[in-house]
Amino acid sequence: MSEEQLYANRRRSTGTRGFSWILALVFVLLGISFFVPTNYYVSRPGSAIELGPMIQVEGGKKDDTGSFMLTTVRMGEANLLWYWYAKMAQDVELLPKELVVGKGEDSEDFIRREQAVMDNSQKIAEAVAFRLAGFEVKIEKQGVWVMGTLEGFPAHKALQIGDVITYVDEVRTSEAKDLLTALSTKKAGDQVEITYTRDGQEAKTMLTLEPLPESKSVGIGVRPDNKQEIIIPKEVTIASQGIGGPSAGLMMTLEIYDQLNTETDLTKGYKIAGTGTISLDGKVGRIGGINQKVIAADKAGAEIFFAPQDTPDTSSNYEEALATAKRIGTSMKVVPIKTVEEAITYLNGQKPKST
Questions:
Q1: Reported pTM
Q2: DSSP E strands: which ranges in 232-317?
Q3: Of which family is this protein a member (predicted)?
Q4: Active-site choice (227, 247, 283, 316)
Q5: Catalytic residue list contains 97
Q6: Beta strands 333-337 and 304-308: pairing type?
């Protein structure tokens, strides 16, 4: 072998070893990035899930030719790898941790709150659907729902997300405004007896009132919501499969209403996805991650997508959804919705899909 050939072989061998070292370093850095936390959560497109198999209404029909689907996003704490991926990917979003979990909260608190909100959304969906179908619905106020606690305040150690405050010093607190009224005459340093329920069990605790941040009033440091019992004339079973949050409210309402409406097929044979919170008056509210939900619906083959028209300008959920639909080139029709009645009217006006 000539001297030139020996030199060329040696150079190739050196280059190969150098490339191997670089490759090994890349893999090491990637491995390390899995364990490096950031102060962000990452959300990305989730899935579109048919509601028919999830929801069962007593005596309801399930012979639709189409389907209603809820849409989800996937969310979790972002390690360094996910952080840099989200910086480069168009449909992956970084959310500052304090926007997802409150100060002093952790992922378990977030999951507990999301599940509590989902439970409430289910009950409201039942009430709205039954009322629209002509049934009588009774609503009984149960107390003040704890949706979060403030770090450094007495409630942070004593109460949990999902607890329901029923009395303050033996004065009934049927809703959030009752809690505010009960504390309005108190001053910092006063103690109050809080009666609450957790997992169906009643308990009591003594808490000392403290000045609330950016407020002239005092409190125990909770983020309150109203907890109510909704009484409907038929049993509804919803297997939400661990899905949390309030954004499935609209689509659950439509599925329940459709099962109650035994004479017609509201889907008309279409695959219908969408998103939006639901309130007791039937209004549809804004949600997060609308662009990611449009992508999830498109991948699932949805033909219609209901999006909240929460504002009259370009910042509305509908306009965001429409922009994403145009960008990804989907044939799915994005429909603006302000109320459940609008969604029902739209579907009633569609011709049955030809097969």
A1: 0.83
A2: 236-238, 271-274, 277-278, 284-285, 304-308
A3: Belongs to the peptidase S16 family.
A4: 247
A5: no
A6: parallel
